[in-house]
Specification:
Length: 488
């Protein structure tokens, strides 16, 4: 069985790199074809081989061929490598359990790396299809456990599931647009965004495999672990128990009404069969995550305010019941053993971004989040209350216009029921020290993103976390990181 598993991983890796190679060679938006198009005026001819009698062609012929490709032909929207190295010096830790944040041994320094290829196609004037293929390798500090605000957003709870290291389909979804007016705006090529003109007033429908955070709780300054902050607390609202599998993706449907000054979006997504699980629950009437968000732009200074509400139904455990059962039986509480169908978790979030200068590249952001906290945190991380503030500063002020500096701080907590469960020795999806001297988790993160040429970024990053896992008896912990991103 082990040899079969090894062969499967090898075949998956070969398939991944074959798709990357084929995309680079064939997709009309790649650097290769761009270079060919730019040489259209070059009169130099190129032979197929050394025999002068064989046919020859020039770059203009190739450019003409590309122009004749049908509009549905796949476009390469991006290639990406993201590597994050983290080092955690030792910190105060008088006791620990299976889910404690640990810097012992190999867990004190880790390297994660993710590879991705992002494709899109225009199937019709109103219908698009996107396909993202990724491969994630490496393991985070403490195997992804021990913190509500975990330190590496590229470790999408991989430590909690046996997912392997082979390639996987991240996204595969359709996007349908219904224009409501003729006005358009230009959009640039980006992962999951075909270049062209987008209707400003529209109804937008998406269906397939995607991530709810692709469309909800967006923020210009704190939303991308590959280019901005890397702590869970600043990627999106951690009190929002986002309906996804272990890797951070789900199957669902989104409908949004988009206007120049506001947007209303409703999304419904599948949830896993167990906490931090990978297998999705097909009992859709008893298991789904529903999200409703209203976005407004109240002034001409670029202010954006987003108000999010969510309701999850899933096979969750209840903290109070788990503690009561443990008291009756003289055992340690286990919320996973208490999981029952159709239990709910609901919550709210406010998200603000405020551009200040430099065409918006310098600005402020903030988030507030809350959930009811009665049933277990099921999918993203173990946070029930959240507050964060931060700033991004453009390097244009010191002659480095593509560089960025980020500084942010967060404070987050858990509900009374959640505290009692951990204090009694229970383990959650990601945290649990066997006992608890409760204190809010406090996180400070700062980074400097250095742009090297067009395609490479190097980002040193520092974090300081007080009361890791909401435990005053532990920490504070310092985390030093170095991220390298290579992206086309």
């Amino acid at each position: 069985m082990k040899s079969v598993s090894t062969i499967t991983r090898v075949l998956q890796s070969v398939a991944f790199y074959f798709i990357v190679f084929a995309a680079v060679c064939l997709c009309p938006s790649t650097a290769v074809t761009s270079a060919l198009s730019s040489e259209a005026a070059d009169t130099t001819v190129y032979a197929y081989n050394d025999k002068q009698s064989e046919p020859v062609y020039d770059a203009a012929d190739n450019a003409t061929l590309i122009e004749r490709l049908p509009p549905w032909f796949p476009n390469l929207l991006g290639l990406q490598f993201n590597g994050i190295y983290q080092n955690v010096p030792g910190f105060r830790s008088p006791y620990k359990a299976d889910n404690s944040y640990s810097s012992d041994g190999v867990f004190g320094h880790t390297l994660t790396h993710i590879y991705g290829i992002y494709l899109g196609t225009q199937l019709s004037p109103r219908l698009q299809f996107y396909f993202d293929y990724e491969m994630a390798k490496g393991e985070g500090v403490s195997s992804g456990h021990g913190l509500g605000g975990y330190t590496n957003g590229d470790v999408i709870r991989v430590g909690g599931g046996d997912l392997g290291n082979g390639p996987y389909v991240a996204r595969a979804y359709f996007r349908y647009i219904v224009p409501l007016a003729d006005e358009t705006e230009k959009v640039e090529r980006a992962p999951d965004q075909l270049p062209g003109n987008e209707y400003v007033n529209r109804i937008e429908i998406k269906a397939g495999r995607m991530s709810p955070s692709d469309d909800f709780d967006l923020n210009r300054y704190a939303n991308n672990t590959r280019t901005q902050f890397i702590n869970y607390a600043f990627i999106y609202n951690p009190a929002w128990d986002e309906a996804t599998d272990t890797r951070g993706y789900s199957y669902g449907v989104l409908a949004a009404l988009v206007q120049p000054k506001w947007r209303l979006a409703l999304g419904v997504y599948m949830v896993p069969t167990s906490a931090n699980g990978y297998r999705m629950d097909t009992q859709l009437f008893q298991a789904q995550g529903s999200n409703l968000e209203f976005t407004c732009k109240p002034n001409d200074s670029g202010t954006v305010i987003r108000a999010l509400a969510y309701l999850n139904r899933a096979r969750m455990g209840n903290y109070n019941e788990a503690v009561a059962i443990a008291n009756d039986t003289g055992s340690t509480p286990d919320v996973f053993a208490d999981e029952r169908r159709a239990r709910t978790k609901y919550g709210f979030g406010i998200n603000i971004e405020q551009p200040l200068a430099d065409d918006g590249e310098t600005g402020l952001f903030g988030r507030i989040g809350w959930n009811d906290g009665h049933n277990e945190n099921f999918m993203y991380t173990e946070v029930d209350q959240h507050l964060s503030l931060g700033v991004q500063l453009s390097g244009i002020h010191w002659g480095r216009p593509e560089d960025r500096v980020g500084l942010a701080s967060a404070i987050q907590g858990i509900s009374r029921q959640h505290r009692d469960y951990l204090a009694a020795g229970g383990l959650g999806m990601l945290i649990g020290d066997g006992q608890l001297n409760y204190g809010p988790e406090q996180i400070l993160e700062m980074y400097y993103r250095l742009q090297i040429g067009k395609y490479v970024q190097i980002t040193p990053d520092y974090m300081l976390i007080a009361n890791p896992g909401y435990n005053r008896d532990r920490g504070p912990a310092s985390i030093m990181s170095m991220r390298m991103r290579v992206a086309y």
